[in-house]
Design brief:
Mean pLDDT: 86
Oligomer: single chain
Radius of gyration: 20 Å
Structural class: alpha+beta
Length: about 170
Amino acid sequence: MRIILRADSGFSNDPLMNWCEANRVDYVFGLGRNSRLQAALAKPLAQAKTLCVNSGKSARVFRDFQYRTINSWSRTRRVVGKAEHTPDGSNPRFVVTSLKRTHASYDARALNEDLYCVRGESENRIGEQFEMFADRASSATMQADQLRMWFSAMAYVLVDTLRRVG
């Protein structure tokens, strides 16, 4: 079985990435912006800005490169930068990954949009579940809390079905 971890930038630390690499677990983690990363994305950001200004619509240009932090990482790793420019301004984003670029489905765009960003959709569904009382486990008994969770789950299924059908 192949395991690919997707997580935000809080997980892009050397001990976790080393463990993943040593245990054949792939990862795609968000990576916080810094001046060195933004400098590596300067040309694609300029391209995205030109495309956005010419079309009036958001534009994205991707860059795949090798990167190593100054102090915190033990080695160089693959980073994908998304140079996005919207009518409101630039929005650069970065991910670090163990996935090789030799596989077509792991090119820079697909890795970012089709693999990393979709994790946000699952987080949205989890958030919706919490909006339907799943965040409260404050009843006097475990059975009452469990019943609340069942009601919340049923309400979520009904709302999700209505969204898909309607």
